[in-house]
Amino acid sequence: MADIQALEQRLEGISVQDENQDANAHGAAHKSKGSLSHAISLSNLGSQAAQNRMKLPLQKIPTNAQSKTLQATSQTTSTTTTITKITLPSQAAQHQQRHSAESRDSEAEPITLLLPADTKLLKPKNFHLGMFEIGKPLGKGKFGRVYLARDRSTGFVCALKVLHKSELQQNKVEKQVRREIEIQSNLAHPNVLRLYGHFHDTKRIFLILEFAGKGELYKHLRKAQKFPEPLAAQYIAQMASALKYLHKKHVMHRDIKPENILLGLHGELKISDFGWSVHAPNNRRNTMCGTLDYLPPEMFKQGPENWYTEAIDLWSLGVLTYEFLVGEAPFEDTMAMTQRRIVRGDMTVPAFVSADAKDLITKLLVLDPAKRLSLEEVESHPWILKHCVKGERGTHQKSLGDKR
Ligand code: AMP
């Protein structure tokens, strides 16, 4: 149990969260990261704005067929990624770690991951903690921390998320974590954060995640207050591309918001946090979940009418577009008022937002889910076409992203 535990103890006094919080007071008060690590009851919440951004408790957990094997996909043996700020333990500490890793290996319970046979670089692999050099902490969630890590044999850089089983049990989120792992490990898209694999020991679960070098989009948004339209349009195009991919796989994310989006080293957007996502082949769910500011009107309906489809992610995309351009969510208010305003579609787009962007927002924030723009229509909307070069839609435009 040595190195991560020791590192965690050593870091106990350091607020890792600080690295991820903007000094901007509004941002700090406003933000309440909703992830599986923040699925806590509303009664524990702080400020009104923070409450609205908290994930709502899951009302009904759908039963998923649980696959026994997980797929991890392409992990190249060389990486062109240059990590300039990687902070690895000293040589002596690394030497000690290697020893402790060896003894730790015997107590870990590795899970065999089946890798797809489409590239000869891949082979079945037992992941375990000793394989990784652990670097600096990247952030902290409610149930654990995320560290920069490097595969000792290949040099592959990734993020290692460490979740404590006891905390998952106490908070009754084991199913949610299992679902997150099942769903995310089967996804491979440039704008969806990759989950390469996972393993566990007696106390902890380790998720091997793609490293998102520029961190949380939320942090960038708070710093900028609002994004310039070209950048916002490129982000929305990337979101549309990712959501199209997810919906094709019958996955609804259900918790789209800036806190759940990370940025890659080149500023490309990566949807993460599949804690509330669901694989719904029949495309219809009636589970109350998500984050109040981003909830669609159909989720507030009672009874048999309370059905919703992947169109919920389209509503959230409208809320996201608004928040990117205005700096706050369109229905932000007291909790009761937010709900009331959502079911009425009561929002105003400020005059400084361009006519094209306003057109996209109002065509996504439509009360009737069937009447919302489709993701294809989002991709070919004049606002997107204006700001995204053909062929680069859905991916990052280097010139803009690198200015951040
Ligand atoms: P989470 O527990 O998933 O909410 O993660 C806590 C924090 O760690 C996030 O807010 C990010 O700042 C950071 N983080 C999580 N995953 C990654 C990743 N794959 N790459 C870089 N930073 C990450």
Structure commentary:
The strands form four sheets. A five-stranded antiparallel sheet has the order 3-4-5-7-6. A three-stranded antiparallel sheet has the order 8-10-11. Strands 1-2 form a two-stranded antiparallel ribbon. The chain is 34% helix and 13% strand. The protein is globular, with a radius of gyration of 21 Å. Among the domains are: 127-209, 2-Layer Sandwich (Phosphorylase Kinase, domain 1); 215-388, Transferase(Phosphotransferase), domain 1 (Orthogonal Bundle), CATH 1.10.510. By secondary structure, it is α+β, with helices and mostly antiparallel strands. Helix 9 (229-248) runs antiparallel to helix 10 (311-326) and helix 10 packs antiparallel against helix 12. The protein has helices at 3-11, 17-20, 25-30, 48-53, 91-107, 165-170, 174-184, 217-224, 229-248, 311-326, 335-344, 355-364, 375-379, 382-387, 398-401, and strands spanning 112-113, 125-126, 132-140, 144-151, 157-164, 195-200, 204-209, 215-216, 251-252, 261-263, 269-271, 278-279. Residues 10-46, 56-124, 282-286 and 393-404 have low confidence and may be disordered. The site of adenosine monophosphate (AMP) has 19 residues, from strand 3 and strand 8.
